[in-house]
DNA-directed RNA polymerase subunit beta (Metabacillus endolithicus), 94 residues
Amino acid sequence: MVAKETTKPISREEVKKAKKSKKEQEIHEEGRQKVIVRVRLLPIWVRVLLVLILMVVSTIAGLIVGYGVIGSGEPKDALEKSTWQHIIDLVEKE
């Protein structure tokens, strides 16, 4: 009869600690510190620009859907200056 080996389940934290300690041992064994350099696919300024562009596009899409579909108007009219001038005149009317 063969005895079964029982293993205790380990948590994620224990796995992380084990990996960290292994890395630290490798660093100390080599005698110099490893430097991990993370290369980003997109620089931060590109990400900010991309977010701004997406915000403008989503705002325009929201205007068209809100004015054309929900407001039962013509969707292309949502982008005309005269429409917004009329809305401003209604809001500022006393």
